[in-house]
Design brief:
181 residues, mainly alpha, 0% strand
Length: 181
């Protein structure tokens, strides 16, 4: 039996498109510091191609670490969080719960980039929720609450604690609200 964090292939493709949008919103934070490093942009392009059905799931699972996440190659915390958002996005081909990881890292990046604006993270979460289709919202509602299932990225680890865990809890609470589209 698979993990409840996996989602069906069709749902992974749906949430991948939304996650790519989330990661792309903060990509400029990385590119401002490392303009010649195209790995995060390439990861977003692969995520979009996966979402469109142009890439084979098994092949993308094998390739998901190709090019690596460039987070360790930048110094600014916002740039590193933006790179991690793209790394989570490209991993959606394997497990749908990475879509929430993408969104969490993107919101964290937005907050780190605007230290004088206390509502930056909440604004990014609101944008993310507002830009979900009903189908994406339904797919993400299937995921277990963060921290309640050990068999994936929403289990014990980086995504369940600290600011990332709080962001994912806020996203999941927002999913419980009526559809916005």
């Amino acid at each position: 039996m698979g993990s409840p964090q996996t989602l069906s292939e069709a749902d992974r493709r749906l949430v991948a498109a939304w996650a790519a949008d989330c990661a792309e919103r903060v990509l400029g934070l990385f590119e401002a510091e490392a303009p010649k490093d195209d790995r995060p942009r390439a990861a977003i392009a692969r995520t979009r191609a996966f979402a469109r059905g142009e890439l084979n799931t098994a092949e993308e699972i094998r390739r998901r670490f190709v090019g690596g996440v460039a987070a360790g190659d930048v110094k600014a915390p916002a740039a590193a969080a933006a790179a991690r958002a793209t790394g989570q996005a490209v991993a959606i081909c394997h497990m749908g719960a990475h879509a929430l990881g993408t969104a969490a890292y993107a919101a964290k990046a937005a907050g780190l980039a605007a230290p004088g604006r206390p509502g930056a993270v909440e604004d990014e979460i609101r944008w993310q929720l507002d830009h979900m289709t009903a189908e994406v919202r339904a797919a993400l509602r299937v995921l277990p609450p963060v921290g309640e299932n050990r068999s994936g990225p929403l289990g014990p680890g980086l995504l369940t604690s600290g600011q990332l865990g709080t962001i994912i809890r806020d996203l999941q609470a927002g999913l419980a609200l009526p559809d916005r589209d």
